[in-house]
Write a structure and sequence with these properties.
Blueprint (H helix, E strand, L loop, with lengths): L2 E4 L3 E7 L2 H6 L7 E3 L3 H9 L3 E7 L1 H11 L4 E4 L6 H12 L3 E2 L11 E7 L5 E6 L13 H5 L3 E5 L7 H12 L3 E4 L3 H6 L1 H10 L3 E5 H7 L5 H11 L2 E5 L5 E5 L2 E5 L13 H14 L4 H15 L8
Parallel strand pairs: 1-5, 1-9, 2-7, 3-8, 5-6, 9-10, 10-11, 11-12
Antiparallel strand pairs: 2-4, 7-8, 12-13, 13-14
Length: 309
């Protein structure tokens, strides 16, 4: 297996909304809010028209992108044996992703993420993790991990208790570990833990500019470059319209954005960027070429609705 993803198995429900809807529901644009009450989640959804429902979750989106590029990939993520859980599994299998999880009836339903797309194409997410957030070390098979060249994790999954144990088990068995920091709120909530992961456990870190600045309390982007050079591992940072940059020791590579795109929905831009970059990495492309592949994949996905090509 080239790459094994371990992440939140979540069904994405995509809806178009106006700015007022965000204000009215006290949502911060472009962030992800966790909702712990199923009633509150259903209430939010009841006022909306659904554009599209698709198997999602950040790492799962990346893994599907890698599969579409012809790589042999797998995924571990927890769903319930319910209608959405069955849909989720089917969605991965249709994309030639091996799904290493046997679903059963759980106390909580399959996780759902409400993706609200405003007229400026920005996406604001409300996530009810359901059973996805209850992943534990028994759900993670060490043999599958040791037979994979790289495992890909997401910051969204990291949480105290069982998910952390699952994370630790995966990292301790892995040959190479890549992880996305996922979201600035995630970074702020788990800063000391994430910093330890980046410095001591990860081989490749994916972040956007806000996430990495927040993680290392940087005053400017130059601090990020210095940090990356000292670290000596791979750090890949997406910088919006400034393009993307990869740092590996003293090697610093940059890549501009694709011009003239008709941007429809930014959901999945970072996930597909990671897919393209990792495709380059496992197929021994240069840092620069891996960045180019990441940029090409994210440019495709933002010109359509949803996070799957």
């Amino acid at each position: 297996m080239k790459i094994l993803g371990i992440g939140n198995a979540i069904v994405d429900v995509i809806c178009k909304v106006d700015e007022d809807f965000l204000d009215k529901n006290k949502l911060t644009k472009s962030t992800m809010k966790l909702i712990f009450d199923e009633k509150e989640f259903k209430n939010l959804l009841s006022n909306l028209k659904i554009e599209k429902t698709v198997s999602g979750g950040s790492v799962a989106n990346s893994v599907v992108g890698l599969s579409q590029l012809g790589n042999k990939v797998g995924f571990i993520g927890k769903v319930c044996d319910d209608e959405l859980g069955a849909k989720y599994e089917e969605g991965l299998k249709n994309e030639n992703v091996e799904y290493f999880y046997s679903k059963k009836k759980e106390e909580l339903p399959t996780g759902t993420c409400l993706i609200l797309v405003t007229p400026d194409s920005e996406r604001t997410m409300c996530t009810f993790l359901g059973t996805a957030g209850k992943i534990n070390e028994n759900d993670v098979n060490s043999d599958i991990i040791t037979s994979s060249e790289v495992i890909l994790l997401e910051g969204y999954l990291w949480d105290e208790g069982d998910p952390k144990k699952a994370f630790d088990k995966a990292i301790s068995s892995a040959k190479k570990v890549a992880m996305s920091l996922s979201d600035q709120f995630c970074v702020d909530r788990h800063k000391p833990h994430f910093l330890d992961l980046v410095k001591n456990k990860l081989d490749i870190t994916f972040a956007n500019e806000q996430e990495i600045l927040s993680l290392i309390d940087a005053k400017s982007f130059d601090d990020v470059i210095s940090f990356g050079k000292e670290l000596g591992k791979i750090i890949v940072v997406t910088r919006g319209n400034k393009g993307a940059i990869a740092i590996k020791g003293n090697e610093v590579s940059e890549c501009g954005i694709k011009e003239g795109l008709k941007v429809v929905d930014l959901t999945g831009a970072g996930d597909l960027f990671a897919a393209g970059f990792l495709h380059g990495y496992i197929n021994n492309l240069s840092l620069k070429d891996s960045l180019e592949k990441g940029t090409e994949m994210s440019a495709k996905v933002i010109q359509q609705i949803g996070a799957r090509l």
